[in-house]
Amino acid sequence: MWARQRAALEAAGYRVLTPDLPGFGQSAPWPRQRCSLDAFADEIHRCLEAYAGGPAVVGGLSMGGYVLLALLRRHRQAVRAAIFMDTHPAADTPSSRQKRWQLIDAVAAQGVRAVAEAMLPRLLSATAGAEVRQAAMALMLAQDPQGVIGALEAMARRPDQTDLLPTLSLPVLLIAGEQDASTPPAVMAAMRDKIPGSRLVEIPRAGHLSNLEAPEEVNAALLHFLHELPTSSGAE
């Protein structure tokens, strides 16, 4: 999902790591009971220790933002700067949690297509082109059902992380799709207001998967943020 960002950042001279969470991409799924945002954050920390060469700029979109918050709580020394995209710090509401359990049952019974078709309308803006829709659907359908179930359960059980925001004393960028139905810009503006010195960039005509729908605009925001950071030898 980060191919366009990786190409742009590497072309600008940055070293980029795009690890697969357990059960996604080429990573084998974990047993369902092992899956949690804290466990995912620990896995990202192991990746950073193995490959980053020092504190790194870490970004996450949607569930990736939840993992980044857990990483900052558990391994803050590993994060030089943070990028939150189309995400929020709150726990699921009871109704949202119930929907996740229903999706878990649907994936277990019918496979990933059940959750992909249910989620796609909320992942992209109403004006997203056919090519973007096909790419997003293909990404979802390529994932392991057990990985999707583990991620859904981890998100359903996640705690509220709002209390962490005022304690963040590192550079923070927030990116929000203008037409994001899941985490609207107002939600991320509230998040920005709680993080000292953070900055919010709104991406016009983009939905929840802003990096897929508007890659050039997202890349420009990322590069501007990275160029303003002090020089470091760590991975970006």
Task: Tell me about this structure.
It is a single chain. The protein is α/β, with parallel strands linked by helices and 236 residues long. The protein has a single domain, classed as 3-Layer(aba) Sandwich (Rossmann fold), CATH 3.40.50.1820. Helices cover 50% and strands 10% of the residues. It has ten helices and four strands; from the N terminus they run H-H-E-H-E-H-H-H-H-E-H-E-H-H. It has helices at residues 3-11, 37-51, 63-74, 94-110, 112-123, 130-141, 145-156, 185-194, 210-213, 215-228; strands spanning 56-61, 79-85, 172-177, 199-203. Strands 1-2-3-4 form a four-stranded parallel beta sheet, sandwiched between helices. Strand 1, helix 3 and strand 2 (79-85) form a beta-alpha-beta unit. Helix 4 packs across helix 5. The longest helix is centred in the middle third of the chain and has 17 residues, at 94-110.
Write the layout of secondary structure elements.
Blueprint: H1 3-11, H2 37-51, E1 56-61, H3 63-74, E2 79-85, H4 94-110, H5 112-123, H6 130-141, H7 145-156, E3 172-177, H8 185-194, E4 199-203, H9 210-213, H10 215-228
Parallel strand pairs: 1-2, 2-3, 3-4
Helix pairs in contact: 1-10, 2-3, 4-5, 4-7, 5-6
